[in-house]
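## retry 2 of 3
previous attempt timed out at serialization; input unchanged, resubmitting
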Amino acid sequence: MSAEKEETLAGRGGDLVCWDKLVKAMRTVCQISVMNEPESTPVRKGCGTLVERIVHGKSIIAILTDSQVICNEEMAEKSFATFTRDGTDETMVVQLYPDIFFLSNEEYDFTLVSIKAEDINSLCTKLAIQPLQLKRISHRDVYNVKTVQIAQYAEGKSKWLSTGRVYEIQAKYILYNADTTTGCSGSPVFYACNEDCYIIAMHKSGGVVTSSSKESVNKGVFINHIFDRLYGDPVQLLQPESKPIFSPQEIGRRLSDKWEKIALATGKFDFEEIKNIRKNPNHEDNVLKAIAMLGDYHKRRGTKEGLASALKEFGELDLAEKVHVDYFQTQAN
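## retry succeeded, writing output
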């Protein structure tokens, strides 16, 4: 029996990825939804990544996404991110807070928007999610990258990972043939280096033709291109306004599996209407169902007082005291 031959890095090492590091990086990927107006229902827009970076001596922890997903502060205020614990049904929905930090640039194709410190801590303790460190990639390392991985919520559903080859490196974009699906704009494009995972690009779109082979591939915004803009802007980290209120997204997150009882208690829904919300394929978990219910309650001119009364009936006294008066009608109206 002949001896086994020594293993060879036939792909020059570009395909070896440390699984633990990749899983840790994938945990930071979230699904971004925006409250649609005037329907007041959550609509999936794309994906994002919880990242951290020191800029001008200040630590920024924020969600990085494409400017097509969130283009301004007004949209960011209506947005929330859904994180999942991979391999389980555990989810956590967090509100975006542009009043802490917000930076968006259409020319550079990116948006950074903060979440609250308490949500960052909860993501760590409940879902084992740590912000991914953003790093500028050296010129030498960039041209050694042969393979990339894209973590994405496939068509707004479960989280998937696709792998592909790098076709072309441009000043602004990286072109690759890793598969992508509808709703994955803003997804991180990872590459492996020294057994660790880094973001080389942020996925933008597909259907791009390469200059050399004329093949149709996908493209992402080169992370160094984002860094050029990030370091060119002053950084101002603010404390969110101390308002004793909860937005519909925060109420929905806290209601969880109580949303059906709350809906009935408001007097604005019957059993059939609640069933329609429950079976809507766009509302995969109780948090999204609760947010959708609150949107419908708003459309039906449900009052702040009516919702507060329903919340109190089921023991949600803290929520009842902090219902957003600017979002729901008041009895005086």
